[in-house]
Request: fold
Amino acid sequence: MTSSGKDEKKETNDQITTHHHHHYVTGIMPKILFFIHDKIYGGSLIGVFGYCIEWILELSHVSTRLHKFLHHNRYINVNKMGLLAITMIIIGHYTEHLHQVDENVKQDIEMAQNKKEDDMRTNRIVALERRLSILESK
Reply:
């Protein structure tokens, strides 16, 4: 790979990254989703925390102490806590999907670059074989 090939690949990745993150977002919730996706470890840990909250809520159906603590506490709204947990799980899955799309784009770029290099090698081999046949015929 030549140095210009690396520069071209880098420019292509930057263009795709810039294009991928250039969304026209309206509303507060999508902006929060994209902030979490871009800034907080890709957002995948958010889903794990959501599952933890959901597990605690499910545990309250088994443990009477936890049930009393959660349901009879004036500072904790269990319904909103459940909604928060589900939202966090959705955000986690969504950010994993975006990460997978980014990986697929990078892989497509790399495969195209490898195909281009293979074509160049094949063209060189064909040209060398032609020269060799011309030299052998003389």
Observations:
- The chain has one domain: 3-137.
